[in-house]
């Protein structure tokens, strides 16, 4: 089964940085997730990631479980050929692509586009499509999490309404 993943390249509250990160992702065929201070979590379970989160982000109290589940899902649920939606805020689809490399950890890959202390270290390879790009829905479509899934029926309804259903070829 093909999953649909929604990811924010960076906080849309910093538009110049967001654009720089998106262009890097498109150029190098990746999508990335933050949480640099957690270190390599690619082989860890949620409980261990939660414990790391307490130590790494003491000022983020209350976010441990949600953040840890995002990281754990990133490594355990993404599969080749899954669909990736890069979002800008909650109303704009920036790009759409297909996973072509399983999740991996590389703490140096994005150092050139991020300050050293926040460079996103968790990555997937993505074959980004040329269209659609920067599709403004005019209303909230996406949630606020940096990384989450979208159900197929919701995606199909949005794709049909806004005319980009052909951007994804689903296997039979």
SSE arrangement:
Elements: E1 4-7, H1 15-28, E2 30-33, H2 46-56, H3 64-77, E3 83-88, E4 92-105, E5 122-128, E6 135-136, E7 147-150, H4 152-162
Parallel strand pairs: 1-3
Antiparallel strand pairs: 1-7, 2-5, 3-4, 4-5, 4-6
Helix pairs in contact: 2-3
Attribute tags:
172 residues, alpha+beta, seven-stranded mixed sheet, globular, Nucleoside 2-deoxyribosyltransferase
Describe the structure.
The chain is built from four helices and seven strands. The model has no long low-confidence stretch (mean pLDDT 92). The termini are close together. Strands 1, 2, 3, 4, 5, 6 and 7 form a seven-stranded mixed β-sheet that branches. The protein is of the alpha+beta class. A hairpin with a 3-residue loop joins strand 3 and strand 4. The protein has a domain of 114 residues.
Helical segment tally? 4
| Poorly predicted ranges | none
Q: What's the SSE pattern?
A: EHEHHEEEEEH
**What Rg is obtained from the alpha carbons, in whole angstroms?**
16 Å
Protein name: Nucleoside 2-deoxyribosyltransferase
Organism: Novipirellula rosea
